[in-house]
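Ops channel
N.P.: pipeline sanity check, posting one input/output pair.
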């Protein structure tokens, strides 16, 4: 990781002391640290997140500062939505919508080219996966029925489900008791493993 400049270090030091304080605003940071525009603060915060110096806390909307910045990272593609439900359509595009820098320590050993992200859409996989979560997928051919969450392509649509085999067909289960769905289908073309669900990015 390249060394951060003085303005980034000033912001980082401030967040170590105040990042988790309630009602901390970008305007307050701007005025306290004498930045001439709030967009300069926003820009630096985003860059610090991308480089894994800080992470936004979804409960308090404050900023957690890592004691030791993450040095070993890999850039992974982020594709379109995977449905945690059964409505609409969403297929992985040929090109990712964006990319994300991610710590290699969180990824299983293996070829990093086998990993990518999809964005969860819907709530049928609650409480494990919420709408808007980033879901890290591993292209893993040795799928087992004991794997509780997998990515499938069903009728051309990406879905995150629990899968059980029934001869040549599959049962696709959701986990939200209020929206439980069980689909019996033979039109499943890909089954890949859900390696991790990221909730606080």
């Amino acid at each position: 990781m390249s060394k951060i400049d003085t303005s980034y270090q000033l912001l980082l030091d401030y967040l170590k002391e105040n990042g988790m304080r309630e009602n901390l605003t970008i305007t307050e940071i701007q005025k306290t640290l004498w930045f001439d525009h709030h967009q300069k603060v926003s820009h630096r915060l985003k860059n610090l997140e991308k480089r894994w110096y800080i992470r936004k806390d979804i409960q308090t909307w404050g900023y957690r500062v890592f004691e030791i910045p993450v040095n070993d990272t890999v850039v992974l593609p982020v594709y379109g939505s995977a449905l945690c439900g059964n409505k609409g359509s969403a297929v992985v595009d040929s090109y990712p919508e964006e990319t994300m820098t991610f710590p290699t320590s969180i990824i299983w050993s293996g070829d990093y080219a086998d990993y990518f992200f999809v964005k969860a859409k819907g709530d049928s996989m609650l409480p494990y996966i919420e709408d808007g979560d980033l879901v890290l997928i591993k292209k893993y051919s040795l799928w087992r029925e004991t794997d509780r969450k997998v990515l499938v392509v069903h009728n051309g649509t990406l879905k995150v489900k629990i899968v059980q085999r029934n001869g040549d067909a599959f049962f696709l289960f959701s986990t939200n008791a209020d929206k439980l769905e069980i689909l019996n289908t033979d039109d499943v073309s890909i089954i890949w493993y859900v390696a991790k669900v990221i909730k606080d990015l």
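N.P.: looks fine end to end. The domain at 6-65 is CATH 1.10.10 (Arc Repressor Mutant, subunit A).
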